[in-house]
Each structure stands twice: as structure tokens, then as C-alpha cells.
Design a protein that fits this description.
single chain; alpha+beta; four-stranded antiparallel β-sheet; 2 helices; about 55% helix; elongated
Length: about 300
């Protein structure tokens, strides 16, 4: 094969058309486009005019409505202000009337209080007069009672004087005797009357007792006593005394006999006196020194 073949013959291109045939259609198309644009603009302008007219009408109606509303509001405000003025004037008149009524009420209240004060003052005066009368009556009654008491005091003084005289006589009747230890005793009481006179002297400490016959001793003063035997016919008794941790028997003793014994508490003797003897019982008193000094 031939590596470089010879190219084939090509005819020349046809000549371009002439310029006058193309321009006419282009110009016609442009006129049509311009006409369409004008029609569209006219339509849009007419629509715009219509819308503007509608807006104008709407604005006119809105303005009219606003004016009407404003007129109504203004009239309402004027009426409200007028009503407020009327209420204010009424309130002023009512306040003036209330002030006048308050003055009348105050004067009426003052008259009522004055009358009430006069009534209460009169009632208090009457009550005070009644109380003063009662006090006078009570004072008169008290004076009567004082006079009666004075009379009673005089009677009591007389009784006291008589009692003192009787007591002095009873004391003068008291006797001294020798005790079972052979020592001079103090004054001896033989009955209740003499015992009271003895206590009134106050020379010693006195302890009155009634002692039954028992298995255990009883405390009298600061000693212990136990009745062992009593004989009513012979007026004798036997008794045990316990003091200072020791026991002492007083055997076959008689009525009104001073039973004497010494304790570690006093220099003077204790004295035991029996004033009555019964079946399995005795009664009497214990006399101890007032001064308790160890021997």
C-alpha cells in the first residue's frame, strides 16, 4: 500500500446569502415585540389605575370611619367629663350635708353624755351615802362589841386574879418531904390541881404519865419505866427504872412518896411521884432538874 495517498477533490462552499433578505424578518419581529410590550404595559397601567382607585376609596372610607369614631369618642369623653363634674358637685353637697349632720350628732351625743354623767354621779352619791350609813351602823355595832369585850376583859381579869389567888393558895399548900433516899425533896403534888400549880412554878421539868403493867418498859422523859406489881388495897407498887444503862428496882413504894435517884446527867436527884394506883396501872409524874450538869 501507498503510505501517502493523494487527497480527493472537494468543491468550494456556496457563497453567503445577501444581507437584505435577513434584516426584514428581524425588524418585523422587533415591531411585534414592541407592540406586545406596549399592550402589556397598557394593561398593567390600567390595572394599577384600578387598584389605586380602590385604595383611594378604601382610604376615604377609613378616614371617614376614623372621623366618625373620633367624633363618637370625643362626644363620649365630653359626656363622661360632664358626669364626673356632676358627681363631684353631688359629692361636695353630700360632704357639706354630712358635716352639718356630724355637728348635729356630736351635739346630741354631748347632751346624752352629760345626762348620763349626771345620772351616774347621782347614783354614786346615793351609793356613797348608803355606804356611809352602813359604816356608821357598823361603827355603832363595833362600839357595842368593844364595850362588851371590855366588860369580858374585865371579867377575865377578875377571873385571872381569882385564878392567881387560887394558884397561890394551891402553891402554898404544896409540901416538901423526904424522899426514899432520905434527902429533902422539892415541892410534891398529890393531885392534878397541885400538879398544874407545880408546873406553873417552873422550877423543874415535869413529865406526867400513866403506866400500865406490860412486858416491856416505856419511856418517860429520858428514862425507862416498867410496872412490875400494883396493890390497890395496900396502895403499894413495885417499879423498875432504867437509866444510864442500868436497871434499878423500887419495891413496895407508897402513894405520893418521892422516889429519888441520881443520873449521870445532873447533880440533883430525879424524883418520881405516883399519885394513884389502880389494877395493873399507876399514874403520876417525873420531876427532873432544869440544869443538866454531869456529876
Amino acid at each position: 500500500m501507498n503510505p501517502n495517498p493523494t487527497p480527493m477533490y472537494m468543491p468550494p462552499p456556496p457563497p453567503p446569502p445577501s444581507g437584505g433578505g435577513i434584516k426584514i424578518p428581524i425588524l418585523f419581529g422587533s415591531v411585534l415585540a414592541l407592540l406586545g410590550a406596549n399592550v402589556y404595559l397598557f394593561l398593567q397601567l390600567d390595572k394599577t389605575k384600578t387598584e389605586v382607585a380602590g385604595l383611594k376609596d378604601a382610604m376615604t372610607r377609613e378616614i371617614s370611619s376614623v372621623k366618625e369614631t373620633s367624633n363618637v369618642t370625643t362626644a363620649t369623653s365630653k359626656r363622661y367629663i360632664s358626669e364626673l363634674k356632676d358627681e363631684l358637685e353631688a359629692a361636695r353637697r353630700q360632704s357639706a350635708m354630712a358635716a352639718g349632720q356630724a355637728k348635729v350628732d356630736a351635739e346630741k351625743k354631748a347632751v346624752e353624755l352629760t345626762a348620763k354623767l349626771e345620772r351616774e354621779t347621782k347614783a354614786v352619791q346615793q351609793q356613797m351615802a348608803s355606804q356611809i350609813t352602813e359604816v356608821k351602823q357598823e361603827a355603832s355595832s363595833a362600839n357595842t362589841k368593844i364595850a362588851a369585850v371590855s366588860s369580858e376583859v374585865g371579867t377575865v381579869k377578875t377571873d385571872v386574879a381569882n385564878t392567881k389567888t387560887e394558884l397561890d393558895k394551891t402553891i402554898s399548900d404544896l409540901k416538901r418531904t423526904r424522899g426514899d433516899l432520905g434527902e429533902q425533896s422539892g415541892l410534891i403534888a398529890t393531885n392534878y390541881k397541885e400538879f398544874q400549880a407545880l408546873k406553873a412554878l417552873g422550877d423543874r421539868n415535869y413529865f406526867e404519865f400513866t403506866l400500865p403493867k406490860e412486858k416491856t418498859a416505856r419511856r418517860v422523859g429520858d428514862i425507862m419505866l416498867q410496872l412490875k406489881k400494883s396493890d390497890v388495897k395496900k396502895n403499894r407498887f413495885t417499879i423498875d427504872l432504867t437509866f444510864d444503862d442500868k436497871k434499878m428496882e423500887k419495891k413496895d413504894k407508897t402513894l405520893n412518896e418521892p422516889l429519888q435517884f441520881y443520873t449521870s446527867k445532873a447533880r440533883q436527884p430525879y424524883e418520881l411521884v405516883i399519885n394513884s394506883i389502880g389494877k395493873d396501872t399507876i399514874s403520876g409524874y417525873l420531876a427532873t432538874p432544869k440544869v443538866q450538869n454531869a456529876r
